[in-house]
Design a protein that fits this description.
Layout: E1 3-8, H1 19-28, E2 31-36, H2 40-52, E3 56-60, H3 75-88, E4 92-101, H4 105-108, H5 111-128, E5 132-137, H6 140-147, E6 155-157, H7 164-172, E7 176-179, H8 189-197, E8 203-205, H9 227-238, H10 242-257, H11 259-265
Parallel strand pairs: 1-2, 2-3, 3-4, 4-5, 5-6, 6-7, 7-8
């Protein structure tokens, strides 16, 4: 693989019209995709898509903005289903995207429930020996507090938008930091400063497609092909070659998600 988009949503309806064509283009470009579930219904969808395509892998979980006051009542059943799904499908390579999101008032009102649900997912990830893909928006402090109770957790902070100092705190826990095309936006100097501070051996690339399109394509649908542009911006910020960015971040993703083991199984 030349590159890996470590966070995409190819199961979303925005790709219904041309999903097979896009997947073929990705294969031609040797771009792998870690496809991320967002709710309990999409967990099976991302697994099915991964099974059908060699260069796609699945991550199962529950996005924090999908959490309601009723979520905890059904968690035991849902966790058992996820455990069965993960154990029976070797292409499930992580738990996610799970975490905390206080951006909107309705989500902020579910903060305590989000924390409780996240703790259950961290326990599940430990039982399955899988890394975690973390979603965190306006909640880095609370996430760091919770992670202190789960030493040794493997994973990545997806779509990092914090400061260099906040990135260092997650790096000190052994986590990876992932950047999207928001680093191409003119106003996001703080994100580019974080890029400059995160070591290449702790960095991932992602698109979060169909969202977060690069500056040059604002207003359009995003897709994993734009991962090369994310690599180009990182190379410019760090003053290194784009191919070195692609080589190192691909190796990082292969290592965390155990994709080398997947190659052996295929």
């Amino acid at each position: 693989m030349r590159a890996i988009d470590t966070h995409a949503h190819l199961d979303f309806p925005q790709f219904d019209a041309d999903r097979e064509e896009l997947v073929a283009k990705l294969a031609k470009e040797e771009i792998g995709v870690i496809n991320i579930a967002t709710d309990f219904e999409s967990n099976q969808k991302v697994v099915d898509l991964a099974i059908k395509n060699n260069l796609i892998w699945a991550v199962v979980g529950l996005h924090p903005t999908e959490i309601t006051s009723n979520t905890l009542a059904n968690m035991a059943t849902q966790l058992e289903s996820l455990k069965t799904l993960a154990k029976s499908n070797p292409k499930v390579v992580a738990i996610g995207e799970v975490g905390l999101d206080y951006y909107r008032e309705e989500s902020k009102g579910q903060a305590e429930t989000q924390k409780a649900v996240l703790r259950q997912f961290l326990t599940l990830a430990g039982e399955l020996n899988l890394p975690v893909v973390f979603h965190c928006r306006d909640a880095y402090g609370d996430l760091l507090t919770i992670l202190a109770d789960y030493p040794g957790t493997k994973g990545v902070i997806h779509c990092f938008t914090g400061t260099a100092d906040e990135a260092k705190k997650f790096l000190d826990l052994g986590l990876f930091i992932s950047f999207t095309a928001t680093i191409t936006y003119e106003a996001n100097n703080s994100q580019r400063q974080a890029v400059n501070e995160v070591p290449m051996d702790k960095m991932f690339l992602e698109t979060d497609c169909p969202f977060l399109v690069p500056q040059a394509r604002r207003g359009q649908r995003n897709d994993p092909l734009t991962i090369l542009g994310v690599a180009k911006t990182i190379a410019e910020v760090k003053g290194i070659d784009q191919e070195e960015v692609l080589r190192q971040t691909t190796a990082n993703a292969i290592g965390l998600f155990g994709l080398d083991e997947m190659e052996e199984l295929s």
